Amino acid sequence: MMKYIRAAFMAVLAIVLISIALGNRQMVTLTLLPQGLADIIGLNQSINLPLFVVIVLSIIVGLLIGFFWEWMREHKHRVEARRQGKEANKLQREVRRLKGEKHKGKDDVLALLD
Question: Where would I find the Lipopolysaccharide assembly protein A domain in this sequence (predicted)?
Answer without folding.
Answer: 24-95
